[in-house]
Amino acid sequence: MEDQKITQLESEVQRLKSAVEELTVLNDLAIAAGTSMEVDQMLDIIVEKATRAVKAEQGSILLVTEEKDAPLKTLIRQQVDQRSRMMPYKVGSHITGWVLTYQQPLMIENLATDTRFHTTEQERKEIRSVLCVPIRYKAKLIGILMVTNKRTLEPFSPDDLRLLSIIAAQSGQLIQNSKLQEEALEKRRMKQELAVAREIQMSLVPKRLPETKALDISSYFNPAEEVGGDYFDYFVLGEDRIGVLVADVSGHGVSAALVMAMVKGVLHSITQKFESTDQVLREMNSILNRIVPREMFVTLMFLVFDLKNKALRYSSAGHNPLLFYDSESRSCQMVELRGPALGISNLSTYTEKDIPLDCGDVFFVYTDGVTEAVNERLEMFEGNRLIQAVEEVTSKRASEIIEHVKSKLREFTGKAPQNDDVAMIAIKVVGV
To answer: Among 3.60.40.10, 3.30.70.100, 1.10.1670.10, 3.40.50.11540, what is the CATH number of 206-429?
Structure first.
């Protein structure tokens, strides 16, 4: 009778001890839930707690992907009992595949004699017993938690399986929380980097206008995203010559902004000495064909106002037509000058066009973010509306011309989102 009481007491002590261990594990996981950590750190904690809780030699987590050909990621977190002399080993995919297929807990008491699995000699040598349980988040399978070989050399018990299932049940929410935290941190980091990139890009846009009494110049630049591929610049080219340039890198975003920065650097190196505007485009094209990714290209218009000889000389590389208001005929038109975009072919050729300058003439250069701006009905602003907008204010200052076009553009697009970078420059001849 006394022996029976002792046995019952020992059993009760063991049960209480197991309950305390379970509560300790769950408490540790609850503490982890209240901390901010990366997914890999959270997986480390889950595997470590699970391995210790069921006294396993090795534990691991595999996360489920959306890929049909490879539904399980490679083993990404693994813990091995430091007291074991065994090297980490990989459990065959046929075992994890069983859990993935049936989405039920799996307990293997003796792998060598379990007829459900065709095992290799190496697996039978290294693995005695296995516990494998699904990890779910909102009823969806997101991973598999697995432990192998009990350190006491006995098979895993139903109590071990129950405890591992409880840990897995808690782990789904922990893993999802860590993923969301990682995503939030990554978005915040990207936002900060884009903000810095925008500051750098805006610093590349000229802040000062060329000092000349002959030309009244105004500009506007607004990228569709934090950074963009539109670019404009001014060049003082010796006595009585002012250079104006506008360019548009294909696409927008960070990659376009990087190419735009390269374009600026190249231009500033080759515009100091040149014979003609078409020569500048040929040299630019030769350089960009070597450094710009093949899927990208640059449209560009380079204008030189020769104030001494009262002439505009310019060349175009696939850019939008130049809008020209002729003060003598009081007509406003698009002046087309064809030429391939930069970066498409080393064989591209370009031409130079001359236009005489008179007081009151207006030149308006822009990127396709202006003419291709769309409204809520998906209609484009197009060149005719731009001509009309400029015609309405040719007697005004360059800054007023820019503001009027901006106003007309906003009025046309309404609440439709800006889908491309916008750059525009108005140049009015006031003293030749």
So the answer is: 3.60.40.10
